Amino acid sequence: MVDDLQLNVPLLRRRVPNLTTAARAAGLRPATVSNLCTGKIPVGRAEVRTLVALASLAGCSLDELIIRGSVVSMIETGIKALDLLAPLVRGGMVGLVARPNMGQLVLLAELMYRMQKRGFATVLWRPEQDVPGMNHVIDQSEYSYKTLAEIVDLIVSLRDEKDILLAADRTVVLSGEIFALRERLKEAGARPITIALVDIKGEAADEEAPYGPLDTLWQFDTDLVSRSIYPAINPISSTSTALEGAHLDALHLTIQQRARKLLRRYRELRSLVTSRGLEKLSESDVQLYERGVRLEAYLAQPFFVAEPYTKKPGEWLSLYDTLDDVRRILEGAADGMEPAELFFRGRLELVVQ
């Protein structure tokens, strides 16, 4: 798609240090080149001669100058709850907000495992102190360093070849090092860096914006943890900028909105059922409640990194398998099933007779 094209600005600036002067000398309007670099003018609307001239200045082909992948596009993780409700933004920053022992480090380790299988370089910016559970993240990280300089050098060496997932503790936000990293990498390499931030002290849950601006927020839910439903991602408060505007296709956005609406109503009804009993609900609310129970159970998922503990094989579901299953649950295809038949499984079709 034309809208998915963007200029390889880091490559261009690296090869043409004084871009404004060089563009003027080549007969190009500096303002046009500047607007192309900042995205104010989409690549698809640029004149071919302009793009050819820029490629000539950089000494590269048009295929090298023009790359695919918009800033706001999702990375498919194969984790149902995340891909459906709060997609990971490619090149963005995701913050995990949880209290201690809610599974955030397990989720981070699983994310590192899955992304490495997808060809990402997985990098851990290690915290200074030893933390229970961090060894799982270290085990699933391809690279692990402690200092800003080491992280910068590594990313510069890798970034032309691979997308990078960088995991770091909140301390690098509080110290300003994460922003120093982004500044130092603005001119380095073509591929995006996706950053996952955790709070190993568990203090982020009490703050309004513990990481600053985020592209994706995964908020962990105490109620789900108490009922051993993992990943314990709050389906209402977890969100992503990939859900804004037209960044998701119509099918994903429609099913995501329907699922969130059902889960929101289910959570309201659950407190009523707990205090008054199911018989106090109307027939339509009983149906909503029971479908919410099934959808919540379906979104629980076994992880690869947890196989030694759960004794269940990890499950990967493509986004469109997840969307199809969720649609069927919303439309009543699983109404005759017990929630336990959906819990901690893979595809719906594996258990629907």
TrEMBL record:
Report if keyword Translocase is assigned. Answer: yes
Q: Name the species this protein comes from.
A: Paenibacillus sediminis
- Provide the alphabetized UniProt keywords: ATP synthesis, ATP-binding, CF(1), Ion transport, Membrane, Nucleotide-binding, Translocase, Transport
Going by the entry's taxonomy, the superkingdom of the source organism is recorded as Bacteria
Q: Which family does it belong to?
A: Belongs to the ATPase alpha/beta chains family.
InterPro entries per UniProt = ATPase_alpha/beta_chains, ATPase_F1/V1_b/a_C, P-loop_NTPase
Is Transmembrane helix one of the keywords?
no
Q: Where is the protein localized?
A: Membrane
Q: What is this protein called?
A: F-type H+-transporting ATPase subunit beta
Major localization listed first in the record, in broad terms:
membrane
